[in-house]
Design a protein that fits this description.
Blueprint lengths: L1 H5 L5 H13 L7 H25 L6 H19 L2 H18 L9 H25 L3 H20 L8 H20 L11 H17 L3 H24 L7 H15 L4 H17 L16 H4 L2 H4 L2
Length: about 300
């Protein structure tokens, strides 16, 4: 709109490059730093193109001299492009510099035209940077907190066996959420975000999904209700506080009491439920012992819990 109203003849260059810069980094949580690097690369390329076009190119009269003139910087840029930390900036500098030089069969440099297009391009990237700052100010921290909170709410919903859930969809959602969360956690300082190990929530989620797939009988579900109620309350509290809260000792006592109760039932369904509860116990309490005392009158520990349950 500014280009149209002002009637700037070469303002189209700024509109074009603003759209390119915005689209390139639209998928980032905070695109402003990347657009800032793009702006720096644009300024460097415009300066380099101006030096080449008005100071060096008048001395070029054949292909050999042109190749020699361009060989050193292009070889240097090509070497730096192989390093991931420099690849994006170097490619932008190389492409824009060659584009701004506009090689032709004869030397026809126009400083006014060159300066007009260079200024339009720089202002276009600057506009994209300011627009990103205004419309996308949240950053990686906000996105990570949002993903973690959504995960806690999902775990609280899974702990309610009375609500129907599609286990396959829930498993896919957990994996997808963790895949989006882990790269963001790597970009954050540990002191800035109180997040527990993301794989911990993933393990809790799969244990709860395993329990839902059992479709336990009402008698077994009644034994599990105190445990699931406390797990549901814990993750709802985490979501409300927007922070990872420590698991309380009453939950450990409830898990062990449920294990004792399930061990007294010799049915296969109770045996599998006991494995899941034991897995939850190990996930939620990293210092918990892998062995569980056999309940009075129940099967021995080796028969009551398989190694898979002990290491869930």
């Amino acid at each position: 709109m500014l280009w149209f109203v002002s009637g700037w003849e070469h303002g189209y260059s700024g509109v074009f490059i603003a759209a390119v810069a915005g689209c390139f980094f639209a998928s980032q949580d905070n695109p402003a730093p990347f657009i800032k690097s793009f702006l720096v690369a644009t300024l460097i390329s415009s300066t380099a193109a101006g030096i080449y076009l008005f100071a060096l190119m008048p001395n070029v009269h054949d292909f050999g001299s042109l190749a020699i003139l361009l060989a050193v910087p292009l070889l240097l840029l090509g070497t730096l492009a192989g390093r991931p930390q420099h690849a994006g900036t170097v490619i932008v500098i190389a492409v824009q510099t060659i584009s701004n030089i506009t090689l032709q069969d004869s030397y026809r440099a126009d400083f006014q035209l060159f300066a007009d297009i260079a200024l339009s391009t720089a202002l276009g990237v600057l506009f994209a940077f300011v627009w990103a700052r205004l419309t996308r100010p949240f950053g990686t921290l906000w996105a990570a907190r949002r993903l973690v909170r959504h995960g806690w709410l999902s775990l609280a919903a899974l702990a309610d066996l009375r609500r129907w859930r599609n286990e396959a969809d829930d498993a896919s959602s957990f994996i997808d959420r963790i895949a989006q969360l882990l790269p963001r956690l790597a970009q954050l300082d540990g002191d800035r975000l109180a997040l527990n190990d993301a794989t911990r929530e993933l393990r809790v989620g799969f244990r709860l999904l395993e329990l839902r797939e059992l479709r336990p009988a009402p008698a077994i579900e009644q034994k599990l209700e105190p445990v699931l109620g406390m797990i549901r309350a814990h993750f709802l509290a985490c979501a409300t506080a927007r922070s990872q809260l420590p698991t309380l000792e009453p939950l450990r006592d409830t898990l062990e009491a449920a294990l004792q109760d399930l061990q007294r039932d010799a049915s296969p369904s109770a045996h599998r439920a006991a494995q899941v509860v034991h897995g939850l116990r190990l996930v939620l309490f990293a210092d918990a012992s892998a062995s569980v005392r056999a309940a009075p009158g129940g099967p021995p520990p080796a028969a009551g819990l398989s190694p898979a349950g002990a290491h869930a």
